[in-house]
Design goal:
4 helices; seven-stranded mixed sheet; alpha+beta; 36% strand; globular; 7 strands; Aminopeptidase
């Protein structure tokens, strides 16, 4: 059974492993170097006050995690957030993303955010399907904005207006 809950400090190690796999093997993030536990601990400290960070736990392990972050620094953007979601490879295709998306969108509504933005690297059709399933609409494409694995990568932006 999968249990979605608020992320805790004890989860940082497993979240770091999931993230570093994405860094090393995918274009889901444009980081090029693995993060240390200390870097991720600092990252973890930016969440839970206004911006939620949740995990999906299965059999006592973090199967994936999801967060909402500030979209931009300017004050007028304060009710717009950017969604990030990462699933451990061993749990991909098992409905973890759906459970995390349901929970994070409920958090977004509870926290009175107005718009949720998802930036999806070109070719990530599973992420596109997940976002579209929850009503996100394609709103634009930034062409060749990241260079990873020897190729220029596009980022497709999707948005969901909550109220």
């Amino acid at each position: 059974m999968v249990f979605v809950r608020k992320a805790e400090e004890k989860d940082i190690h497993e979240m770091t492993v999931i993230y570093n796999q994405a860094v090393a093997e995918t274009v889901a993030t444009f980081d090029l170097k693995a993060h240390t536990f200390e870097q991720r601990k600092e990252w973890f400290g930016r969440y839970q006050d206004r911006y939620p960070l949740i995990v999906a736990e299965k059999d006592g392990h973090v199967a994936g995690y999801c967060s909402l972050s500030p979209f931009r620094d300017k004050e007028a953007y304060m009710d717009t957030v950017e969604l990030s979601i990462y699933i451990s490879p061993e749990f991909q295709g098992a409905g973890i993303g759906k459970k995390l998306m349901e929970a994070i969108l409920e958090e977004a509504k509870n926290r009175k955010f107005h718009v949720v933005i998802g930036g999806i690297t070109g070719g990530n059709e599973a992420s596109v399907r997940l976002h579209e399933r929850f009503g996100f609409e394609f709103v634009g494409n930034f062409k060749q904005v990241g260079f990873k694995f020897g190729e220029w990568q596009d980022v497709h932006f999707y948005q969901l207006i909550l109220n």
